Amino acid sequence: MFHQFRLAAFFSALALIGTIMTSNLPAAAQEAGAEATPTVLITGANRGLGLEFTKQYAADGWNVIATARKPEKAEDLQALAAESDKITIEQLDVTDHEMIDALAEKYKDQPIDILLNNAGISGTPKPGMIFGKLDYDMLNDYISVNVAGPVKMSEAFVPHLKASNQKKIAVLSSKAGSFAEDGGGAFPGVLWYQTSKSALNMAMTRVTKAVKRDGISVVLLSPGLVDTQGGQLTQMGMPGLTPIEESIGGMRSIIDDLTVETSGQFITYTGEAVGF
């Protein structure tokens, strides 16, 4: 009986020590054992696809870190954030690598389940992208934003992804960058855009291999032809436009299903595989 009492006292003491140690842990560590609210970081969240991603994730209860190059001018994003305590707006220019590093440092203790590289220069036809009239300064802009931006973001936020439950990188690409399908090839004035998306696809396949050892999965997404130009594509009479809600909903389903085993794929919002 005496030995049983001593054992009971010993285990009670252990439980008490465990309680004290847990209470002294940082809040993030205490939450690690619980099912924490997932977090998504979205670049280029001020309008178009990024804004709709922000809207849908926040509506589903996610914590959303929504970045914009000029938050003070992002009226729609500001209005959305005013209605939801799930949205935090941060200023970010993906061509400014010091700014990216500073944002990563600011959130160094925040696990990020999904890094959603959405920011980019769109493929709206422009004279400077027509062969014979090419503006080579424009090429530098496309590469800096559409290629280097997502790669630098992926580099900077690997620690945050590793600390999360889901560990996913999603990148907005385009069929226009596919050699296999020559998507968008029928439209003149998109040469630099197509070039940048092809380069993005190559770069992110390398990133996929680099982060796989950390359990991080990557997917390249083609959102379809969505009018994110304030009605400009509609006015131009472009056929086959996809409603933005449908495009974002489809891409979110693909991200949900993403695993390390399926990492590195190039997929349309409808789930169709795209050749590189």
Describe the secondary-structure layout.
Elements: H1 2-23, H2 27-32, E1 39-42, H3 48-59, E2 63-68, H4 75-83, E3 87-91, H5 97-106, E4 114-117, H6 136-156, H7 158-162, E5 168-172, H8 191-211, E6 217-222, H9 232-235, H10 244-257, E7 265-268
Parallel strand pairs: 1-2, 1-4, 2-3, 4-5, 5-6, 6-7
Helix pairs in contact: 3-10, 5-6, 6-8
Task: Provide an overview of this structure.
By secondary structure, this protein is α/β, with parallel strands linked by helices. The protein has a single domain, classed as NAD(P)-binding Rossmann-like Domain (Rossmann fold, 3-Layer(aba) Sandwich). Helix content is 45%, strand content 12%. The chain has helices at 2-23, 27-32, 48-59, 75-83, 97-106, 136-156, 158-162, 191-211, 232-235, 244-257, and strands spanning 39-42, 63-68, 87-91, 114-117, 168-172, 217-222, 265-268. Strands 3-2-1-4-5-6-7 form a seven-stranded parallel β-sheet, with helices on both faces. β1, α3 and β2 form a beta-alpha-beta unit. α3 (48-59) packs across α10 (244-257), α5 (97-106) runs parallel beside α6 and α6 packs parallel to α8. The longest helix is centred in the N-terminal third of the chain and has 22 residues, at 2-23. The radius of gyration is 22 Å and the shape is globular. Residues 1-5 and 7-34 have low confidence and may be disordered.
